[in-house]
Design goal:
The chain is mainly beta. Helices cover 11% and strands 61% of the residues. It has one domain: Lipocalin. The strands form 2 sheets. Strands 1, 3, 4, 5, 6, 7, 8, 9, 11, 12, 13, 14, 15 and 16 form a 14-stranded mixed sheet that branches. A two-stranded antiparallel sheet has the order 2-10.
Length: 342
Amino acid sequence: MLKYISLFFLLIISTAIKSQVEIDVNVADTTVVSESYTDYSDQLLLKVMSVVKSNELEIINTNNQQSLKLAPYGISSLGFGFNYKWLGLGMAFGLPASDADIVKYGKTQRFDFQLNIYSKKFVIDAFAQHYRGFYVKNPEMLTTWNETFFPQRDSMQTFSIGVGGYYVFNNDKLSYKAAYVRNAVQKESAGSFLLGAFYNLDYAGFETGANSYFVPDYFPTEVQDTFPLNAYSASSFGISFGYTYTLVLGKRFFVNISLVPGVGGKNLTVHNKNNGELVKKRGAAARFIGRMALGYENKHFLIGLTSYSTTGTFAFEGYQIKPSTSNLKFFIAKRFNLRKKE
């Protein structure tokens, strides 16, 4: 049985990479009781959604404050999802890129998986991302660039794996899943301090055998010398602390904002193209997580917008390496009561 389960997940991953599929899984507590919010996890929640996800990299030379920004082509996706009882699942399929966009930004292949666990007291987030195909996002800040397309790094790829969680202190009055799952409804405004931990693995580089660097070789030599890095890997870990607040306006509209900075340590390995050395370094690391949600509750349907972003910062001999991931989702949903009427 384990063999077949493993093959099933490998098939999902293989299909996702080729089809530009994004997979979100939500697991939520169904035993929540509170006077400040109402739980609807026993009702079927169906969603139609539009999703934009990304995995970007910024390298800053702290000696001259120049910045190199690399990004994948931001493909929009359309999908569907559901929540019922403790389980939620969403799948979104990337829309075909136009020929003009491919010429301008290049092609991007990606696999993007996200897992969220919401209990009354704890919130846990985990993600796994693989992107291949990037472009230089700010060429005009580095050199004279008058082309209608962006400089492209077709063989560049990134891997990101992360898990983090925190404790919601004011959990009797604030519901996280009311803002980000919508199988609960926050009835009055409330906020809470958050305390937790994080662990991340990040990698950026090029395919084996590819003679490529983060800066295109047709850029001026001084620009190439400003960013002499062409691969890095890092593991980071630490504690996070922050605050979240949900503002309820009337009985139908709400806004939630969560800000959770974190500090800890890192194990960093950087490949310097000038001398071909792999340099390993340990030290401090920082990570920032931001969330935002807003929504409208109607008798017959509900709409919502959520965003999630996390950014890491690794200092290295006059450079800052800043990988980031982001997720923006808009959805329209409706609840269905599956219980038999008495």
